[in-house]
Amino acid sequence: MDLLLFGPPGAGKGTQAKLLIEELGIPQLSTGDMMRAERASGSDLGKRFAEYMTQGLLVPDELVLELMEKVLSSDAAAKGAIFDGFPRTAPQAEALDAILAKLGRKIDRVVAIEVDLNVIIDRVTGRRVCKSCGQTYHLRYDPPPSDGVCTACGGEIYQRADDTEEKVRTRDSEYQAKTSAVLEHYDAKGVVVRIDGVGELPEVTDRIRAAIASK
Ligand code: ADP
Ligand code: ADP
Ligand code: ZN
């Protein structure tokens, strides 16, 4: 199955993707996590990502697609994937559909996680992330261990430099201007189910399960 978890920054896409990897038996593909790993490696591609990411702006499509084509042509996601944070523009969605079509696949379900901007700001400014595995924590809703060591992998927990209120507002504007078109793209194909993203983590997971099973 190819599942797209869709929603604004801080909607809970990454958190929910990690909760579903095992039961769905397919990996999470997070372009944000991949781009941060590329930056950490010090590569030229990573430096080009940084120019945009540090400002809260979307990375240009051709750079994102270069990264994604590499991943999708590898064995890692041969049986499907949970897409998280990709596609983020209409051209990215069209390119993804074309790549999947070549593999005899398509996006089977888009779960659009709906959360208001005030909740987004509260979530993103309190977010803490593992540098190694991308596991998310929240200062109040899912507190990280006091020693700052990731419970999932032993990695270092930190605060992303773009998780400030100012940058979240910029990222939300980018979302409204460019990413919402992705929803229209998949709405036209009849695969979108919208869910309320506010509630306890397991409640939201249940809504996603129901959305996957529906229709
Ligand atoms: P996204 O991947 O959509 O940007 P994350 O999964 O990283 O969002 O979640 C953003 C922040 O909100 C994280 O700190 C996470 O712990 C927290 N969070 C996620 N889901 C919920 C929820 N249902 N209730 C409260 N906090 C949540
Ligand atoms: P969040 O889910 O909290 O918005 P991500 O980790 O998904 O954060 O993305 C962080 C940043 O990485 C984005 O603000 C953007 O600069 C870049 N990015 C990630 N995925 C994409 C994408 N598919 N297209 C363009 N830019 C992206
Ligand atoms: Zn970790």
SSE succession: EHEHHHEHEHEEEHEH
Q: Give the rounded overall mean pLDDT.
A: 96
Biggest sheet strand order reads 2-3-1-4-8
CATH architectural name of the largest domain: 3-Layer(aba) Sandwich
What helical percentage do the residues reach?
40-55%
Number of helices: 8
Q: What is the domain tally? A: 2
For the terminal residues, how far apart are their CA atoms? Answer: 15 Å
CATH homologous group name of the largest domain: P-loop containing nucleotide triphosphate hydrolases
Describe the protein.
The protein is an alpha/beta fold and 215 residues long. The chain has 2 domains: 2-124 and 169-213, Rossmann fold (3-Layer(aba) Sandwich); 127-162, no CATH class. The protein contains 8 helices and 8 strands. The protein has helices at 13-24, 31-40, 44-53, 61-72, 90-102, 117-125, 165-187, 201-213; strands at 2-6, 28-30, 81-84, 109-114, 127-130, 136-138, 157-158, 192-196. The chain has a 5-stranded parallel β-sheet with strand order 2-3-1-4-8. It is globular and about 45 Å long. The two termini are 15 Å apart. 32% of the residues are buried. The chain binds adenosine-5'-diphosphate (2 copies) and zinc ion (ZN). One adenosine-5'-diphosphate binds at residues 9-10, 13, 31-32, 35, 52-53, 56-59, 64, 85-86, 88, 92, 171.
